[in-house]
Amino acid sequence: MILLRLRQILLSSGFFLFCAIAASGADAVIPIPRVLDELMTFHPSWMTRSVTSHDPTGGNGDGNGDGIAHEGEYRALFHDKGEGRILRLWMTVDLKDIERDYRELWVIVDGVTVYRGKPVDFFEGRGPWKAPLVLGREASSGAYTSYVPFAYTREAKILFLGNPHYFQVTYRQGAGASQGPTAEETARFLSEKWWESAPETAQAGVVAKNKPLLLAKGPGTVAQLSVRCDPQSLGDLKVRIGKQDAVPLAFFFGLASATPDKGEVWAWVQDAIHSINPGDRLLVTRLPVPLQSGEELTLTTVEGDPVIVKYGIAVSPVVKPYVRLLTQYRQQDGPGKRTTMPFFAAEGALQVVSFAEEIIGGKPDSRLYLEGDEMIRIDGMEYPYQFGTGTEDYYNGGWYFSGTHSNPLTGMPRFFVNQPWDGWKRAFYDISMYRHHVLDPVVGRAGMRLGH
Questions:
Q1: Integer Cα distance of 117 and 111 in angstroms
Q2: Which of 275, 284, 300, 279 is nearest to 231 (CA)?
Q3: 52 versus 368: which is more confidently predicted?
Q4: Which of 53, 289, 366, 440 is deepest in the core (most CB within 10 A)?
Q5: In sequence order, what are the beta bridge partners of 8?
């Protein structure tokens, strides 16, 4: 029996009443990048879904090729008609099979060939697009990932010559679905060193039991937040948005477990949303946090000694009505059998923004829990609109990852081996992962359920 301790936090932008712009204690005013600004605009006509190589029988035979249509000698990984936008392409294969099976990738948008050539060349940046729009096997930790936006108004296809093995194509459909940042704008967003202009931690405060520290008060939109504290204290801190339940501050920054009780230090993370600098004991995020009139953004702690923190906040003049950032945190044990495990559930109109997960335990020398396929259901639908091929695939990795890493939208900041002796034969693993959906938000009009 597999018993897992799972801790997750999922951030989503829900759509409720939100008013003007201002924030108490703010020490800077900055604009919100277009990519993040669009997360605070609800698109009820959009349907975000995936076509993947999951086993249609419900087993673990992902990548066996069942159910993939053929066009002559090519396999049609994706084919859609109408207006839409391909948001993400992920693939992986055993290294020994690349030369034989990865023969040609062919992308056709509105009848025009935009790429036709070697699949590895496409992902490794030897085609029209470079990193970080495309990520090779090392950058994507055992897989290949593309965030090149392919917008179409009539029809789009992705054809493959050979055997694709494992793949996922995430796209959206509906009126206006083709709209969004260009490839150049997306590449700029993913590659900019935004943390270099983050607000200085010029303000100081004390967080104590039953005495939260007020960071900002609405109406206003927090555009960036910097927090500096002792690493040993990070595990005691939580962040609260409005009247929602407080969630661990470390999870809010995508770091998951943060207390170095096993001789560890914070992971070094620099991506499109978060920046973690362990040397400076500094955590920075540019995830927008809208606050309604009177709502507060606070730091809390429920136990332990008072914690001294330094912080800085930047606000944006952008006004987005009817928007709130929802946070949800769960700590739960695995069911011990093959079944879907719920990670997130919410009602109303919302879209997924970011997801952080930590897995602890399992069987000795086994990471088979990473074989679980993600399933995302929206609007009360019984069948998942996104049905994946494995947990590490959802986080853009492959083959249980090739080590800790951080790229612009996904990463594994923590991989700790407990009892590593005897060649890991008795080892248990602590794994932390995150994925930002800022380029491929999943839209739900009447609720959403996510599980593995």
A1: 17
A2: 279
A3: 52
A4: 289
A5: 330, 357
Q: Is the pLDDT of residue 26 over 70?
A: no
Using CA atoms, how far apart are residues 58 and 153, in angstroms rounded to an integer? 33
CB neighbourhood size of 297 (10 A)? 25
Q: How far apart are CA 204 and CA 433, in angstroms?
A: 30
Residue with tokens 């801190």: 237
Distance of CA 341 to the CA centre of its chain: 18
Does residue 83 contact residue 111 with C-beta atoms inside 8 Å? no
Reduced to 3 states (helix: H, G, I; strand: E, B; else coil), residue 259 is: coil
Average pLDDT over residues 272-287: 92
List Cα–Cα distances, 263 to 90, 416, 418, 433, in angstroms: 35, 10, 12, 20
Among 184-193, 250-259, 377-386, the least confident range: 250-259
Please give the mean pLDDT across all residues of the chain. Answer: 85
Residue 390 exposed, middle or buried by CB count within 10 Å (0-12, 13-18, 19+):
buried
Q: What is the percentage of the chain residues whose pLDDT exceeds 90?
A: 54
